[in-house]
Write a structure and sequence with these properties.
The chain is of the alpha/beta class. Helices cover 42% and strands 14% of the residues. The structure holds farnesyl diphosphate.
Length: 251
Amino acid sequence: MVSHLRPEHFIGKPRHVAIVMDGNGRWAMQQQLPRIAGHEAGAKAVKRIVEHCPKLGIEVLTLFAFSRENWGRPSEEVSALMRLFLHTLHTETESLREKNIQIRFIGDRKAFSVELQAEMRQAERVTKDNDGLILVIAANYSGRWDIANAAMKLSKDVLSNEADITAIDEEGFAAYLSMSDLPELDLLIRTSGEVRISNFLLWQIAYAELYFTDILWPDFGPAEFDQAIQEFASRKRRFGLTNEQLTQAEV
Ligand code: FPP
C-alpha cells in the first residue's frame, strides 16, 4: 500500500477543508452595492464558517483571501480589501484566541504593508498555542509560487549540504511546501459557480475531493457548508486503489 494512505482517509469526515471564496463582487452588484460591500459581507461569511467548523470536528480550514493575481484589480478595490483585512484582524484576533482557534498565514507576506504584516504576526503569536481549529489564511498566495518557493528552499539546502539531492522524493519535496505540517487537504470548495482552481492549492489538491456550488460567498453559511460535508461523506475516495481493496481497508 502506498505511504500517503492512512485509515482516516477512508472515513467520511474531512480533516482539512479549503475554500475559494468567490462571488463577493456579483453579490454586491445584485444588491446594487459597491464591490467592497460584497467583500464586507464576505468577511461576515468567513466569521460564520470559522465558528461553525469546530462543531463538525474539522481540524484545518484554509481560506483563499487574496491571490497574487488580485493585485491587478482596480487600486481602490485593492486598498479597500487591505483596510478590511487589517480591520478584521485587529477586531477578531482576541475572539480567535478565546475560541481556541489558531490562525496562520500562507503566501508571500512581504508584499503587504508593514502595518498589516505586524498585525498578521501579532495574530499568529497570540493564537499559536491554541489547539482547536487551525485557520489558514492564504494571502498573496498562489499554488505555483508555493511550489517554486519550495524548490528554491530545497535548492538552498542542497547547496549547503543540508539536503541530499539523491534522496528527494514526493514526501521530501512536500516538506518544503506551505502547510507541510498539517493534515492533507481532503475537500476543496469553490463558491459562485466557477469551476476552476485558479492557482490555489495545486500540489495539495492531489487527492482532495472538489465541490463546486453556485451560491455566492456572502450567502454561503453553515447550512451550505454542511451540504458540502454531506456530499463529501457520500463520495467514495479510492486513491488509485480498487473498490475491493477499499472494502478490505474499511473492515
Ligand atoms: C472573490 O470574490 C473574493 C476575493 C478576491 C476576496 C476575498 C475576501 C473576503 C471574503 C473578505 C474578507 C476575508 C477575510 C479573511 C477577512 P470576487 O470579488 O472575485 O467576486 P466576483 O467574482 O463576483 O467579482
